[in-house]
Design goal:
- Two copies of one chain form a homodimer.
- Chain A has 381 residues and is α+β, with helices and mostly antiparallel strands.
- In chain A, the strands form five sheets. In chain A, strands 4-3-2-1-5-6 form a six-stranded mixed β-sheet, with helices on both faces. The first copy, chain A, has a four-stranded antiparallel β-sheet with strand order 13-14-17-18. A three-stranded antiparallel β-sheet of chain A has the order 7-10-11.
- In chain A, α1 runs antiparallel to α6 and α7 crosses α8.
- At the A-B interface, α3, α5 and α8 of A face α3, α5 and α8 of B.
């Protein structure tokens, strides 16, 4: 556990520009970004100036204090109401504190607090915060956190590369198990074990091994139905290394592919290759999607093309641009240093089967490099 | 996939009594309760009368339609804006539909929609729903869902028993690996693999193997620090079987326990046994906590006692009464048929180490039975 002073200083500068008196951290990804560690309950406040405040369970305080020394303040709690009081007291102090000269005041006079609103921010905590702190306007912390987190530092890219290599080990294991009679659950079990032994902490999403007609699924699961000869199998692996997420998806056919399966696969492959070749600074997901759509149309699969071929990835499994979740992200321009996936969407014939191939790329000034080159062939196993 | 007509009918009766025109389902636990299956994106609407509406990705529709026949309506989407439109259109229809004669109208004229607000309800979806459906008041679905879900059906208890047996297999594996030099992560890796091979789909929370002073943690993680001789190790396992959650925690000392470790352990053991002996219909978590507090005080550990010894468990890892999250749940009375844990809280000497022992019990008219009797000894391994 340590306070990343550089990141906090940069966050505070952005908060002042945006008129935020503080960030309320409630998620593992933001917590790890500032404090470098997975904490069981990630609860912290970054004020616009001064040291951060960590909100800690009472019995964990001595360990925290030893590692943090004076780099952060610590408020302790033994129950939820104490936790909530600590948050309320801290924000009340912020509301009356001296604000930096560059501070952008809010038009309605209420101070603003930034918060992440994504899949891992529980709705009840946001509502509770609003109820207990009516003097604040709660706004999205994305303008601050995206500015910091979209472009990765070299050490972050290295961890993402490690995570992607761990995913590759899991995919090797999954592929060697693929045969009729084996279930998606058995494959997921072995792939997860392989990845954890290779250093994954766990996965950022459940492992998907979508078999047969379930290869159509937009996300997925790993069920106990035995694979049959001729099934399409989509394997999607998302191990994490020190919080950094990998994303590796491959599709296999067990046995000899049918004509339609081969057509789906070769179309996806062309879309995947054209998209990765087009990755470069300034391009948007909307532009990347149009490339894939043209390819799908030419292949007679235009009706089944889904927008959202690319998304950001880092400490969160889906970061800005996360265009299948936030439509405005379709116009976000890629920048050098970003890490993005190619191949997020499934190309499926409804009721029959689908294909997905996904890899992670590091955007460079010249284009993009894959974090790990996992083979796109063979299709048939 | 199937529609549980009985549960939906009972939900609709409760919704009419409470004046809810519909439930908006956004979480796996509620979705599985009504539809019996893990779906990648759990999105459904239960109207106060008539069949449920499932909101499905377009390519998944044929599979859904085959399994559901006419028992549910299906709205399909290919992107998030279509998904949101489907929800808005469905609720607009509900607002003008014929309501049951027993329907309790809202005082302010706005119709009410019920929604779960817990850890797995993303804040941004609730805010988006509010923005798109301003004609509705969003209220907690707990009064409906708790009434249905707190008391388990026999088949649910059987699945919970299976999950607890899977957890026991994982604990056996964890215990046999415990020795100096092994890390929490290695133990978690092997325990998870054992549990998945025994039929766990995964776990409802990350596996905790809290070693050394991290045994103080309120929740936990599994880190790579090698265990040292004399370390306390808290192992907390939460496998799921068909969505139903187990919870099994044990604490071991690696080597010979120090006096303070033995004292913590024996005090926790007395608190655990007294609490399980006191489990019976009508008792509250508040009353159960007072039993434990008396024991901790007598042992000179009163300052370190934490409230919340017991919580509900089922399709969600923490269900009503979840008194460490919702304070009002401290006064919820247990009822025959409920499944609850005993041993949720850590008893810790801050900075030194802590102890936790947790099991799941089925409340009966006479008292309570453990779902699986996992040994509470040995402490020292």
């Amino acid at each position: 556990m340590h306070v990343n002073v550089d990141r906090i200083t940069r966050a505070q500068r952005l908060m002042a520009e945006r008129g935020l008196v503080g960030l309320m951290i409630l998620t593992h990804d933001d917590f790890r970004y500032f404090f470098g560690e997975l904490r069981a309950q990630p609860r912290a406040i970054i004020p616009v100036s001064g040291p951060p405040l960590l909100i800690s369970f009472a019995a964990e305080e001595p360990e925290l204090r030893d590692s943090l020394a004076d780099s952060a303040a610590i408020a302790v709690f033994s129950d939820v109401s104490q936790q909530m009081s600590a948050v309320r007291d801290a924000f009340n102090m912020l509301a009356t504190a001296d604000l930096p000269p560059s501070f952008a005041a809010s038009p309605d006079g209420r101070h603003r607090v930034g918060m992440q609103f994504f899949f891992h921010t529980p709705a009840f905590l946001v509502d509770l915060f609003r109820k207990l702190n009516p003097q604040f306007e709660i706004v999205s912390s994305d303008p601050v956190m995206d500015t910091l987190r979209m472009v990765k530092e070299p050490a972050e890219v290295e961890l993402m590369r490690q995570a992607q290599m761990v995913a590759a080990r899991g995919m090797d294991r999954a592929r060697e198990l693929l045969r009729p009679g084996v279930s998606g659950h058995e494959i997921a079990t072995e792939a997860l074990y392989t990845m954890m032994k290779a250093g994954a902490e766990g996965t950022s999403t459940p492992i998907h091994v979508n078999t047969g007609r379930r290869s159509c699924w937009i996300h997925g699961t790993a069920d106990s139905r035995p694979i049959e000869s001729g099934d399409l199998v989509v394997v999607n692996l998302t191990p994490q290394v020190e919080g950094y997420c990998a994303n590796l998806a491959r599709t296999y056919v067990v046995g000899h592919p049918a004509e339609w399966q081969h057509h789906l696969y070769s179309t996806y492959l062309r879309m995947h290759q054209a998209t990765r070749d087009a990755l470069r600074p300034e391009i948007t997901v909307m532009e990347l999607d149009s490339i894939g759509k043209t390819i799908c149309r030419a292949a007679g699969l235009g009706d089944h093309h889904i927008d959202g071929i690319c998304h950001g990835i880092g400490l969160r499994f889906e970061e800005t641009p996360a265009s299948t979740i936030v439509k405005a992200h379709r116009r976000v321009k890629l920048r050098p240093g970003m890490t993005v996936t190619v191949g997020h969407t499934t190309l499926a014939l409804p009721g029959l089967g689908g294909v997905r191939l996904e890899d992670v790329f590091h955007v460079t000034s010249a284009g993009a490099e894959p974090l790990f080159r996992y083979p796109l062939e063979p299709f048939s196993v």
